[in-house]
C-alpha cells in the first residue's frame, strides 16, 4: 500500500478497497507505517494506526516504525508513536534501543520521558 504525503484520506480509501495497512514492501520489508514515520507524515501515520496498523511491526533490519522516526530525527513523529503506544525500549536486531540510536538531545528527551512513564 503506497500512500502519498498528506494522504490520510487516501489511506481510508485504500483500506476500504481492501488495502493491507501492514503489508511489507521492498528490500527492507517496510510497512506503510515505517515509511510514514521516516517521512514524518503525521496524517498518514495516524490514519494507518486508526485502521489497525501494527505499531511494533519489524522491517528486515528488525526496526520498528519508532526506530525509523528516531533514525530520521522526526521528533514529532516519535512523540506521536509513543503517545499511541510504541515501545521506547524495544530492541532492534543488533540489540540497540531507540534511546541508544537517538542522535539529538531533543529526541533522547522524548524517548527517556516515555521510558520513564512506562517503567
Q: What do these coordinates show?
A:
This protein is mostly helical and 119 residues long. It has seven helices and no strands. The radius of gyration is 14 Å and the shape is globular. The chain has one domain: Ankyrin repeat-containing domain (Serine Threonine Protein Phosphatase 5, Tetratricopeptide repeat).
Short characterization:
With 119 residues, the protein is mainly alpha-helical. The protein contains seven helices and no strands.
What is the CA-based Rg, rounded?
14 Å
What is the arithmetic mean of pLDDT? Answer: 87
What CATH calls the topology is Serine Threonine Protein Phosphatase 5, Tetratricopeptide repeat
| Main sheet characteristics | none
The low-pLDDT segments are: none
Q: How many DSSP H or I helices?
A: 7
What's the end-to-end separation, in Å?
A: 35 Å
Shape: globular
> How many distinct beta strands?
0
CATH architecture: Alpha Horseshoe
Order of SSEs: HHHHHHH
Structural class: mainly alpha
Keywords:
single chain, 119 residues, mainly alpha, Serine Threonine Protein Phosphatase 5, Tetratricopeptide repeat, globular
Topology:
Blueprint: H1 8-16, H2 32-39, H3 42-50, H4 65-71, H5 75-83, H6 98-101, H7 105-118
